[in-house]
Amino acid sequence: MSSHRLVALPVKHERSARAPGCFLQSDDDDDDDDDYVSSGWCPKPNAAKSTVELRGQAQPDTEWWKTAVLYQIYPRSFYDTDGNGVGDIRGVTAKLQYLKDTGIDATWLSPIFKSPQRDFGYDVSDFLEVDPLFGTNRDLEELFAEAKKLGLKIVLDFVPNHSSIEHWWFKQSELGVEPYRDYYVWHPGKPVAGQSRPAVPNNWNSVFYGSAWEWSEIRQEYYLHQFEVGQPDLNFRNAKVIEEFDNILTFWMARGASGFRVDAINHMFEDALFRDEPINDPSDPLSYGYTHHIYTNNLLETYDVIGHWRKVIDEFVEQTGSDTVYGYERFGWRRAILMNFIHFSIMLTEAYTSMDMVLRFYQSDDGSEQRAHFPFNFVLLGELNGASKARDFKYVIDRWLENLPRGKVTNWVLGNHDQPRVGSRYGEERIDAMNVLLMTLPGVAVTYNGEEIGMVDYRDMSWEDSLDPQGCNVGPEEYRWKSRDPQRTPFQWDDTFNGGFSTANKTWLPLYPYYRQNNLRKQLESDWSHYKVYTEAVKLRRHRVFREGSFRSKAFDEHVFGFVRYLKDDPADGSFMVVIINLTDEPSEIDLYDVYDSIGDRDARVYLVGTESRYKINQVVDASRLLIGPYESIIVGNDASSSFGTITGCYRLIVASLALVGILMKLTYL
């Protein structure tokens, strides 16, 4: 199976003193710097004009996830089919064709498992049962089956750090019943003279504000909860707990899950000695920022568990996917063929932490242990915003790509249910630019439902309507700035009652008040809209130059950032695409030869523009003098770029045909 990797081509290098594994290659371009060619772990670029060049293996890829558009669905807010004001699994199934039409490859579902819903599903009381609020296990299996018919993958949220206090494990642990006694993190506390109840064990605080310790009258000990008080932390130093989650992974893979997003993984282990953490910000002793989290975050044991779960997933795939005979024996050959019994599951990790700690989720330092297929890359969420300049974009993007371990697939997360929406974080005028950027960078694009139509946060939501514990815990004066409710409002399908989301008199969260002005139906009926820019960008990323091409970026000035994707190493093709975004309201004239000097005398043609562009698609432009208007987003390429993945498509057809022949040959021996 071929691999799609961003690696350095074999070239003669002069060893740089900058860092081991990073080489400085002299160039003959007009700028003052040399070009960096990544060969492993490299330092940040030190000038806005430096050129980071990551060269890809120009081969088609047979693994669906490596260039996928992964679309997060927050089920509560997506589509309600039973009229209770809350979205459900059948609502996702009903909208699968919409996802297919939009160009989505896979969807990641936020938690749908049984839960008292104190943290909207992240407090799980049964990891093997769908919550009745969303439907049934049968509904979920039907979703898997219908998605498969359309060629879509379903990725589930996997929440191992904690459970709900309503989980059977916790109830038994609280009673001291074996084998559950040590399933959670318990501590007797610190004795206090003259008091019957001991003090909390240490100064650890919850992400949701206040102490991370809660007293149990039943067990007469404290339990740890790094999040909401109803979310006790599981004890992963207990091998039986790890085994429980092994079984959970296998259970859902066997029913059709194509992957798992592992939530809050960096909180999985805590210091076994329960030491106080050093003070960070003494202004509020109850806030999460009060301490440096050196004993509750990013402990090295976490990576061992992720490596173990990768083996669990890979072994399941090997048994049920690579060995197709296993599928025939289990399901019968007719059903196996109908099911396209070639299974491939992936594991993604979520950890808001430093880049070096995030990158360790790919593999061990020596590469001997494989871990996540990819850890979420949050640099577009956490390090850039509406005030960022072109050089900031270049620095952040180049630094990530330079440090990407050899042979690993990158990804870019532009939105999720915990972070402000693109239009609220970057400004509504930059929605097209950011979506175009996301869809044309190398690797996996991770997007959030509603971003395709430019939904924005409902920051003026009333205190009475607010439900998020992260906001409610800080009170009515500060909730607006802490709550995640504003980015979780229902999807705006049309301009009818409740935006077409639900027929209920009251939805679980109120809709954004201006949904009649901004909704999917209106954007579909418009000549050009955020949605149409988004879908055209998704179509363009299917082009071979975006799937397999090399990458080189440029900060043209403080306003305009751009990069080129090209197939220079394939002389028969010679395709290139230049992506340009203006981050400000200042127009700028740029020369595309500054980022890619191999344009030659060929015409540069416009392939995509934003909603406010002066250019038209298919317009021929002067590559040496391209005027970029305020907040402009534009993709320009050469005529060779008009062949959309023909070679890749033919290759895939050949591979599929050979696979079918192989299956038929095997059937003759069954």
From TrEMBL:
Transmembrane segments: none annotated. Keywords: Glycoprotein, Glycosidase, Hydrolase, Signal. Residues 72-488 form the Glycosyl hydrolase family 13 catalytic domain. The keyword Hydrolase applies. InterPro entries: GH, GH13_cat_dom, O16G_dom_2. It is an enzyme of class 3 (hydrolase). It catalyses: Hydrolysis of terminal, non-reducing (1->4)-linked alpha-D-glucose residues with release of alpha-D-glucose. CDD domains: AmyAc_maltase. Its EC number is 3.2.1.20. GO terms for molecular function: alpha-1,4-glucosidase activity. The keyword Magnesium does not apply. Coiled coil: none annotated. One of its GO terms (biological process) is carbohydrate metabolic process. It holds the Pfam family Alpha-amylase. Belongs to the glycosyl hydrolase 13 family. This is alpha-glucosidase. The lineage of its organism: Eukaryota, Metazoa, Ecdysozoa, Arthropoda, Hexapoda.
